[in-house]
Amino acid sequence: MASSFRILSVLAIALAICVQGTLGEIACEHLDQDTCAYAISSAGKRCVLEKRVKRTGEEAYTCRTSEIEADRLRNWIETDQCIKACGLDRKSLGISTDSLLESRFAQQLCSPQCYYSCPNVIDLYFNLAAAEGVFLPKLCEAQEGNARRGLMADIKSSGFVAPGPVKYTVAPAPVEPVKYTVSPAMSPYYN
Fold first, then answer.
1. Where does the signal sequence lie (predicted)?
2. Phi-psi region of 175 (alpha: psi -120 to 50; beta: other; left: phi over 0)
3. What is the spatial distance between Cα 50 and Cα 81, in angstroms, rounded to a whole number?
4. Do residues 50 and 61 make contact, with C-beta atoms less than 8 angstroms apart?
5. How far, in Å, are 90, 158, 162, 168 from residue 165 at the CA level?
6. Which of 47, 42, 38 has its CA nearest to residue 99?
């Protein structure tokens, strides 16, 4: 039994290498629903799985190229080991920050098996978190220290709080705008 599993595993890996070698480059539109999610095209764009309902009522899944670019990664189909270690699902539709609000998902994403072994996944969620005003290493640090409630509130509010109204007895002086230059944050794999 174990030897036939090994033979099947070797054949599956050989087939994957052969197909990728034959195709040369990954085009999201050519991927099936079992390889689409968390894949990156040869152009460096992330692939997303989408579901549509046919006129017959039957569900159909298609893979398409998103506008989201991966940092320094190309021609990548995420491994089953990373999908499992990071608590992901191959049938994930689209790309969203919603999963970062789930404690169980954040724990798996921040686990050493995922965080230090799956650069594609960490790059994706690093950028998604940054778009919400959250620094992924801080989120993971909070997971370790069990102090995630404050960071989760930051995610929900994007970390910005508007000041309350101010009453003036005298007209305020004009306020000059402040110009800030912010460097983009980089995923821990590329620093």
1. 1-24
2. beta
3. 23
4. yes
5. 48, 21, 9, 10
6. 38
| Dihedral over alpha carbons 84, 87, 90, 93 (to 10 degrees) | -170
Whether the Cβ atoms of residue 93 and residue 56 lie closer than 8 Å to each other: no
Measure the CA–CA gap between 40 and 118, rounded to whole angstroms.
Answer: 14
Q: Which two tokens mark 113?
A: 């098996």
d(CA 9, CA 12): 5
* Inter-residue contact 27 to 62 (CB < 8 Å): no
Q: In the block, which residue shows the tokens 């569900």?
A: 59
**How many CB atoms within 10 Å of residue 135?**
15
> For 40-79, what is each residue's pLDDT tens digit?
999 999 999 999 888 898 989 999 999 989 988 999 999 9
User: How would you list the strands of the sheet with 76-77, edge to edge?
Assistant: 59-69, 45-53, 39-40, 76-77
For the stretch 80-110, pLDDT in tens is 999 999 999 988 887 778 888 888 999 999 9
Whole-angstrom CA distances from 184 to 23, 127, 135 are 34, 10, 11
Interatomic CA distance for residues 110 and 104, integer angstroms? 10
Residue 129's identity, in one-letter code, is A
